[in-house]
Amino acid sequence: MAASSVIPSLLLFLFLAAVAAAAASSNPNGYMHLRFYNHERILGSGPSATVVYAVQRRDSNSGAGFGNVIVYDNLLRSGVETDSPIVGRNQGMGVGSSLAENSGLTNFQLVFTAGKYNGSSLALQGLFPVAPLGTVFERAISGGTGKFRLARGYLLTTEVRATNTTLTGQLDAYITFR
Ligand SMILES: *[C@@H]1O[C@H](CO)[C@@H](O)[C@H](O)[C@H]1NC(C)=O
Ligand SMILES: *[C@@H]1O[C@H](CO)[C@@H](O)[C@H](O)[C@H]1NC(C)=O
Question: Could you say which residues form the signal peptide (predicted)?
């Protein structure tokens, strides 16, 4: 991966998911729909800072570099704004799993800490592509706990805002219990 793409790759790779139970509704196919926002701080520190631990292959500086491992703990908020209410955390990991270094395999838990889903969580897995802002990509909801026991479904992720220190993503979870 070219040096110039190292930073964007890292940012996109770190920006892993999102959660906040801002909107809940059913779509025509009977899926419950929840919309969350993942707030990740790339740089700096503070009460809302993302905690990231990265293990990088010696010959790769890319966040999506094959074999690299990133462990993260992001805040989930009900909205895009940085002062939106906190509804949970997005805790998980990403592994550079593409030889072309254009995606990583993410495995994470959306843990709710407020609102009607406080104490419940969703389990997710899927590829996180290195792609421009606005790209929609999909990952699988493989299960859950509490109010999400036996949940299945899919999560659509779109990066909606990037600054030089933060990355904010919209997550739309479509959940069924059938
Ligand atoms: C969430 O649930 C925990 C455990 O029951 C409780 O201590 C906490 O106050 C709740 N948080 C909110 C924001 O309701
Ligand atoms: C981020 O951008 C702001 C201006 O928008 C600038 O003041 C600040 O120094 C930048 N921070 C970094 C770490 O580049």
Answer: 1-24
Ligand 2 pocket at CB < 6 A: 43, 164-165
Which ligand is nearest the CA of 7, by number? 2
| Mutate-to-test residue for ligand 1 from 118, 120, 145, 147, highest number of ligand atoms within 8 A of CB | 118
Beta bridge partners of 145: 121
Give residues with Cβ within 8 angstroms of 130, minimum separation 6.
5, 8, 9, 12, 13, 64, 101, 102, 103
Say which residue, 99 or 5, is predicted with more confidence.
99
State how far the Cα of 108 lies from the Cα of 125, in Å rounded to an integer. Answer: 6
Q: Is the pLDDT of residue 144 over 70?
A: yes
Residue 115 Cα to ligand 1 middle (Å): 8
Residue with the larger pLDDT of the pair 21 and 56: 56
Q: Which domains are assigned to the chain?
A: 30-177 (2.40.480.10)
Q: Give the per-residue pLDDT at 30.
A: 80
Look at ligand 2, atom 1, and give the residue with the nearest C-alpha: 164
CA distances (Å), origin 84, targets 21, 87, 94: 11, 9, 26
